[in-house]
Write a structure and sequence with these properties.
This protein has 277 residues and is an alpha/beta fold. 38% of the residues lie in helices and 19% in strands. Bound molecules: NADP nicotinamide-adenine-dinucleotide phosphate.
Length: 277
């Protein structure tokens, strides 16, 4: 029987996940379909019970459900619990297990697209929201030497650092302080929404003090190249956009559901084609 996988979010009409996963199922001859459902926060509990009742094999959850879904599940992977967010759920014979593939997906995309070993690197994370949490802990697990976090609200950056008990050097600072010290870092990562459509003229911080050859990564993928990434390219940085993170988080979810790792280049091509339209 054909299996069903789903996305729960609010809104979901813009999501590229159905396109990406349905193509992978078809390409890999897996009898399954992926469908996006608009689920209002007040209906999340019923929707999750519906997953159990209907035997939906697995799902993704996106904004605004990534934290709210946690108490509704039967078990949470320790890494997802530490991040405090779930984006992937596997239905194991009626038991719903929650995972987070956003952070690991980001890190895998960074390593494979930019050909960089994160171990020993000095990294600046800009932003301290939901996406930053997964990215920060995944960078810690990869053995980065230093991971500083700057944020408009510095207390949120400090709180994230305080939650981490691993032996990594981390400091919280303001956006202005980070701008001054940009030359100290090997990798700069924008995890804020600054520069995203329709606010495409904005940049999270100035790159005036960045050194040439720095890796500059922006997790935004709409537009495909933010003003900040364009500026980084002009200053001879190695740049990466957010498509890789999106595709790899999806590929890791797909692997958790099916046991098979999909063709990420094919997924990337499909997503890019759609975004260019
Ligand atoms: P979030 O939890 O709402 O966090 C937003 C972050 O952006 C916070 O650090 C916030 O600072 C900062 N911010 C927002 N507006 C700002 C402004 N005008 N000036 C300075 N800082 C500002 O959102 P999120 O879920 O982490 O998502 C952040 C971005 O990542 C979005 O653009 C989203 O599309 C993208 N994303 C991409 C992927 C992917 O697969 N590529 C996955 C997830 C998210 P404060 O703490 O001060 O409010």
């Amino acid at each position: 029987m054909e299996k069903l996988y789903a996305l729960f979010g609010c809104p979901v009409h813009h999501s590229l996940s159905p396109l990406m996963h349905n193509d992978a199922f078809q390409h890999m001859n897996i009898a399954a379909r992926y469908h996006a459902f608009h689920v209002e926060p007040k209906h999340l509990k019923d929707a999750i019970n519906g997953v159990r009742a209907l035997g939906i094999s697995g799902l993704n959850v996106t904004i605004p459900h990534k934290t709210a879904v946690i108490p509704l599940l039967d078990d949470i992977d320790p890494a997802a619990r530490r991040i405090g967010a779930v984006n992937t759920i596997v239905n194991e014979n009626g038991r719903l297990i929650g995972y987070n593939t956003d952070g690991p997906g980001y890190v895998q995309a960074l390593e494979e697209e930019v050909h960089i070993d994160i171990k020993g690197k000095r990294i600046l994370v800009i932003g301290a929201g939901g996406a930053a949490r997964g990215i920060y802990f995944s960078l810690v697990d990869k053995g980065a030497k230093q991971i500083d976090i700057c944020n408009r609200t510095v207390s949120k950056a400090k709180q994230l650092i305080d939650e981490c008990d691993a032996a990594v050097s981390s400091a919280a600072c303001s956006l202005n302080e980070a701008e001054e010290r940009l030359g100290e870092y090997d990798i700069l990562i924008n995890t804020t929404s600054v520069g995203m459509y329709p606010h495409m003229k904005e940049m999270p911080l100035s790159l005036a003090n960045m050194k040439e050859g720095t890796v500059v990564s922006d997790i935004i993928y709409n537009p495909l190249e933010t003003k900040w990434l364009k500026e980084a390219r002009r200053r001879k940085a190695i740049v990466q956009n957010g498509v890789g993170m999106f595709v790899y988080q999806g590929a890791l979810a797909f692997e958790k559901w099916t046991g098979a790792f999909p063709d990420v280049e094919r997924m990337k091509k499909i997503v890019m084609e759609q975004l260019r339209r």
